[in-house]
Design brief:
Elements: H1 3-8, E1 15-21, H2 39-53, E2 58-62, H3 76-84, E3 85-92, H4 94-97, H5 100-112, E4 120-124, H6 136-144, E5 148-149, E6 151-153, E7 159-161, H7 170-193, E8 207-210, H8 218-230, E9 234-236, H9 246-259, E10 260-266, H10 282-297, E11 301-305, H11 320-325, E12 334-337, H12 341-360, E13 376-381, H13 388-397, E14 403-408, E15 420-425, H14 430-439, E16 446-449, H15 455-459, E17 468-470, H16 478-487
Parallel strand pairs: 1-2, 1-3, 3-4, 4-5, 8-9, 8-10, 10-11, 11-12, 13-14, 13-15, 15-16, 16-17
Antiparallel strand pairs: 6-7
Amino acid sequence: MTEQEVAGHDVAKFGGTVFISYARADDERPPFDDAVQGWVTFFWHQLRFELTNAGVHQADLWLDRYEIEPAEDFTKKIEAALHDAKLLILILSPNWAQRPWCLREVTHFAELRSDAAQKTVIVKKLDLPPGINLPPGLKEILESREGYKFFAKEPTGDITEFYWRGLQDQKAYYGVLLKIARWIASQLILNEALPSPPLAPPSKGKAIYLAAPADELRDAWQRLANDLEGSGYEVLPAKDRLPDTAQAAETAVRDALAKAILSVHLLGDSEGVKPEGGEETVVRLQLRLARERESAAGVFGRILWAPKWLADRSKGKRDPFQVVQRFGGLGPGEEVYAEEVTDLSQWLRGRLDREEEKRRGAPSDKDMRPSSPEARPLLIASADPDDDELVTALANRLQSPETKIHPLFAGDTPVPGQSAAIVPWGKADHSAISSLLAALEPLKPIVLRLPGGDEAAKRRFFREGIYSERVDALPTDRKSGRDLLVRLEILPSNGINGA
């Protein structure tokens, strides 16, 4: 099919999984430059846009961000993704050639498909090093065509990369990208016409409410919806948009929430539009109704995805807990997740699958490994608004698989069900600290006395049953945060390293 035929074809219904094989080292951001995206991340977003622009908006660009070490088993997750893949994108580079798992992905894809060479997109970030020993399947693919180069060789032999520490040659980069998108679109259209499409995964009979997002997170919503449906879960609502009027939107949300076992809310910088006749944005409307379902029907889990980085990284890194504070802070049954959408997808599906296995009483892969401690509820509380920033910083650095953090800012009502609490004491006065400790009973919080405020009151501070310790500063990262929790005997020394 020619590019002209693709451009004139009704491609709105076409889609499919496109597996991207890459080396994590090729997606590192330059140090001290948070405004620049990694090479692979930038490529993913731009290709996603071009495919959507071409009408192939249902194409799922499968990107696994988890590092796989040689000692680990070849994961079922990657095997399944390669099995379902209609196309394979290889982002070739010297880093890619050194990763055994990248080479194995190609080999596995070639084992699954007799036409693997024709269904592989060769993307060259840089040339592979000379003399490298390639597996037969990859050698055949590389010999079949030149591929798409994102660099140029000068007559002097120097290499000019189109994307290096940011976009260097916009015209050349987008020109190559457009050719890739058009070729992928043509292949997905042809694949759609082939007989015997892959069987849908067995339905788990469970529905997840995936809240309709603002425009800036629609790509992320589609990625999550594709991955959840691909794992056998029903996604509600079925589209990433709500009805236009407030009454119809609220009815649709309530009906969908009633069928769901969990809700996921995507919190960007924008809150989306206000349905006609309503006073709430679509993001606030759905979160309010999900919280009302909690109060009406008991425990109803809610995941608040407040990513630290949005697609436009020029806006800088976000504090997830400050984002959540815009929506009233964390409520009972709510969890904050702050990593990339690919990480969220894998974490969410893994959690849902484990809960389903536990409900059925079936042993999971996790059950066969040495058991890990359950996440311990941990309250981080401030006694004064001037200490709220300490709560935010400490809560971020103590997040790990071993802890379920709940920040409590000055003036908030304590949430029951916490097993431990830490109070970072900076500028609060003695009476404010005393009032907070009384409100937290019967918990016996650990008080961390930081520089600032009434130093004399801190030196004389003593409460029976409450441990107090002077620290010069908060932990600087998640590893030192865990070290602090171990030293305070909140976590065992031999637990999971959540850094």
